[in-house]
Amino acid sequence: MSKLLTVLLLLAASWPALSDEITYAKHIRPVWDEQCERCHGSSSPDYATFMKNPKQYELDDKGPRMDSYAAMVFFIKAPEEAGAMMRRLDDGSNTKDGQPGNMYRHLGRKDARKENLELFKKWIGEDAWIMKKTAEYTQEDLQRIKAKE
Ligand code: HEC
After folding, report:
1. If you take atom 26 of ligand 1, which residue's CA is the nearest one?
2. Please, which residues have CB within 8 angstroms of residue 46's CB and are 6 or more apart in sequence?
């Protein structure tokens, strides 16, 4: 294998944000395991159960369960929660009041936080990264969402 090709392959592997093929399995799940699992993992209540008593679960540092692709995508494009992921993870550069979403800080420390945010953005799609409320979502907004499995 040529040196150039090796370098290119290494670059592509270490910088997934460069490629268009961001997938849940390859790129998002490892970040989720590291940063989100402890509060959204299998010991957390499913969404319906969580919604019956959110305050109680919050006190326990438990958010709604998101431990599969389907459970994760629910917070991206389901009618009940479309856009929640984007609103919660934004660093404040797209929100109306300039404040970051309250899950942004869980994306990691310093540079890792920025890189992980970029990863989520690329995964969902740059033009699908909007701060609309769920009720304001249109069919067109939903169609822009990539979020590949
Ligand atoms: C320390 C615990 C903790 C960590 C770590 C954490 N979360 Fe959360 N998360 C919560 C709690 C508690 C809630 C529910 C309270 C609220 O809505 O703020 C929540 C709510 C959310 C919601 C909104 C759910 C809804 O009902 O609309 C999303 C989306 C979310 N988290 C994504 C993430 C992602 C992605 C990560 C990892 C980068 C993460 N969270 C890491 C505790 C956590």
Report:
1. 64
2. 64, 65, 71
CA of 140 from ligand 1 middle (Å) equals: 26
Kindly report, residue by residue over 78-115, the tens digit of the pLDDT.
Answer: 999 999 999 999 999 999 999 999 999 999 999 999 99
The position carrying tokens 């599969």 is: 68
Residues with CB under 6 A from ligand 1: 35-36, 38-40, 58, 61-64, 75, 81, 84-85, 88-89, 102-103, 106-107
Helix (H) or strand (E) holding 10, with range, is helix 3-14
